[in-house]
């Protein structure tokens, strides 16, 4: 039970710090278009899966472009995160696109078709 609470606090801290790093410290307009939805740590806290999404306000910024920018800047982001966390180790970061908004939209479309 206590481990679950500690893990949850670590995930929340990483989410908060990554949001600050990407929005304020990175000089990359492509990355500023994304929003971090969730962080999930493995039980040993060695790996963090970061789920992200974005609003396509700019047609030039695509999901693929953001994914490639995240991959290119992963080491820099991890280094900045290491300076902010008070932990012995910093988890490896794996960025994954969050499809929950798209799935919700598909379900809503299906329900609207059924109700007509």
UniProtKB/TrEMBL annotation:
Pfam families: RBFA. It is found in: Cytoplasm. The keyword Cytoplasm applies. GO terms for cellular component: cytosol. Keywords: Cytoplasm, Ribosome biogenesis. One of its GO terms (biological process) is maturation of SSU-rRNA. GO terms for molecular function: ribosomal small subunit binding. InterPro entries: KH_dom-like_a/b, RbfA, RbfA_dom_sf. It comes from the Bacteria. Its main location: cytoplasm. Monomer. Binds 30S ribosomal subunits, but not 50S ribosomal subunits or 70S ribosomes. One of several proteins that assist in the late maturation steps of the functional core of the 30S ribosomal subunit. Associates with free 30S ribosomal subunits (but not with 30S subunits that are part of 70S ribosomes or polysomes). Required for efficient processing of 16S rRNA. May interact with the 5'-terminal helix region of 16S rRNA. Belongs to the RbfA family. This is Ribosome-binding factor A.
